[in-house]
């Protein structure tokens, strides 16, 4: 239900729906009302394109868990959440392909080299796919290409969302204390809440920042702005849904 509501509330889809309404009004001869709606749509699109609305919404998520200034000394393992790899292109082309959240995998390799004796758990499948081997192919190809020893990595590829990652990854380790959790900064609050709800004591290591420390006016990009707003809707909506459904330890987890 939450995913369907999120799909409808995407800014670009709402604007498209508004244009359809305008077309219906004009076709029925309701010209004045149609024009008013059209003017509102144009004004909204301009505001979204100019104002750093997405940055305002995403920034509190990214600032919630600061990145450690120095690597922690007491760490039991590295836990990286899926989402940075392009599964379809990697499987089709046979070449490792990253998405916008590819920093998750790159930082995981850097951390694995900084902690050469620690295990690495990679958790996350695809919500719409049942081909587990294809899902694992992307991560395996990327980690192998970056020189990470495959013997150190355990793959959990059956989870369909963050809450399931926390649940299923827990079955792969004997001690859930002191694990570095690597995921996108905007995703970190929801991820920490889900893992704490399953008894993990994770150390947040946020990556893949999408905002600067201070969002400013001056740019003009409708596509980037709507993408940022969509990211914010996904995460804030996820926080609400996870808390409501008991999948998170709190609404807005803190360090």
Give a written overview of the molecule.
The longest helix has 23 residues, at 222-244. The model has no long low-confidence stretch (mean pLDDT 86). It is elongated and about 70 Å long. Strands 3-2-1-4-5 form a five-stranded parallel sheet, with helices on both faces. Helix 2 packs antiparallel against helix 3 (31-50), helix 5 (87-93) packs across helix 7 and helix 8 (162-170) packs across helix 9. With 255 residues, it is α/β, with parallel strands linked by helices. Strand 2, helix 7 (132-145) and strand 3 form a beta-alpha-beta unit. The chain has a domain at 68-208: 3-Layer(aba) Sandwich (Rossmann fold). Helices cover 51% and strands 11% of the residues.
Strands of the widest sheet, in order across it, are: 3-2-1-4-5
Question: Can you give the mean pLDDT?
Answer: 86
CATH class of the domain at 68-208: Alpha Beta
Query: Could you spell the SSE succession in H and E letters?
Result: HHHHEHHEHEHEHEH
């Amino acid at each position: 239900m939450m995913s369907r509501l999120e799909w409808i509330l995407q800014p670009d889809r709402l604007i498209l729906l508004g244009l359809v309404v305008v077309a219906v009004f004009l076709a029925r001869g309701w010209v004045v009302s149609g024009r008013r709606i059209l003017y509102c749509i144009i004004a909204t699109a301009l505001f979204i394109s100019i104002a750093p609305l997405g940055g305002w919404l995403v920034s509190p998520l990214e600032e919630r868990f600061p990145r450690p200034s120095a690597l922690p000394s007491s760490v039991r393992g590295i836990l990286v959440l899926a989402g940075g790899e392009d599964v379809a292109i990697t499987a089709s082309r046979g070449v490792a392909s990253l998405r916008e959240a590819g920093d998750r995998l790159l930082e995981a390799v850097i951390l694995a080299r900084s902690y050469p004796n620690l295990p690495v758990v990679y958790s996350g499948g695809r919500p719409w796919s049942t081909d587990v081997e294809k899902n694992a192919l992307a991560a395996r190809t990327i980690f192998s290409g970056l020189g990470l020893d495959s013997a150190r990595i355990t793959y959990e590829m059956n989870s369909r969302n963050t809450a399931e990652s926390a649940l299923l990854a827990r079955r792969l380790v004997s001690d859930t204390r002191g694990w570095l959790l690597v995921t996108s900064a905007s995703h970190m609050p929801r991820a920490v809440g889900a893992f704490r709800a399953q008894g993990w004591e994770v150390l947040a290591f946020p990556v893949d920042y999408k905002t600067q420390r201070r969002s400013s006016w001056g740019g003009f990009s409708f596509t980037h702005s709507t993408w940022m707003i969509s990211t914010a809707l996904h995460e804030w909506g996820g926080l609400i849904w996870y808390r409501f459904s008991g999948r998170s330890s709190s609404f807005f987890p803190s360090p």
